[in-house]
Write a structure and sequence with these properties.
The protein is mainly alpha-helical and 189 residues long. It has 2 domains: 50 residues, no CATH class; 128 residues, Up-down Bundle (AhpD-like), CATH 1.20.1290.10. Helix content is 64%, strand content 0%.
Length: 189
């Protein structure tokens, strides 16, 4: 995928300058490329960040579970940027390298616990059907609070939107983000 919109930087738009100073920067101090690209519409970026911040930072799910959902969504949407960024975040949340590889194989991989399998299945069902089956809903509601269950749906839904932005605009990977050839191959198929 070719880069269709170049990331914007501070100094290009006063509305953007305010947003880009609020913790959406990478290790270099520059805004992450996704935010620079979405900065082509500063008003939308400002409003979306409220919801995105909930999903990533104020979510009621355990961070490891949240990252499994995001990784599976990134894989399902064939989004190299989403996958690479969240491999790094998932590792910080305790997801192992073996589990990251197993995310690619999906919920039926025998290495998953029952709880992880149900989460990955939820991501797949939301991706494929935009709804959870009765079985998955009941399995999740048997161990998650109502807020957590809603956060499962919000997490997958938000990261579908993110993948649409990333894949459609061709957001380039940020420095230090792994570029997984499996994701790129899946995208090409």
């Amino acid at each position: 995928m070719n880069e269709r919109l170049s990331p914007r930087r501070q100094g290009e738009d006063a509305r953007l300058d305010d947003l880009l100073t609020k913790g959406i920067s990478g290790p270099s101090g520059d805004p992450l490329n996704i935010f620079g690209v979405l900065g082509h519409h500063p008003d939308m970026l400002k409003r979306w960040l409220v919801f995105a911040t909930h999903v990533l930072s104020k979510n009621t799910l355990d961070p490891r579970e949240r990252e499994l959902l995001i990784l599976r969504t990134g894989w399902n949407c064939h989004s190299p940027y989403e996958w690479g960024q969240h491999v790094l975040i998932a590792e910080e949340c305790g997801v192992t390298a073996d589990e990251i590889e197993a995310v690619k194989r999906g919920p039926d991989d025998p290495s998953w616990s029952r709880n992880d399998r149900i989460l990955l299945r939820a991501a797949d069902e939301l991706h494929e059907h935009q709804s959870l089956s009765e079985h998955t809903w009941n399995s999740l509601s048997g161990r998650l609070s109502t807020e957590q269950l809603l956060d499962v749906i919000a997490t997958v839904g938000n990261y579908h939107l993110v993948a649409m932005f990333l894949n459609s605009t061709g957001v380039p990977l940020d420095e230090g983000v792994p570029d997984d050839p499996d994701v790129r191959r899946a995208r090409a198929d």
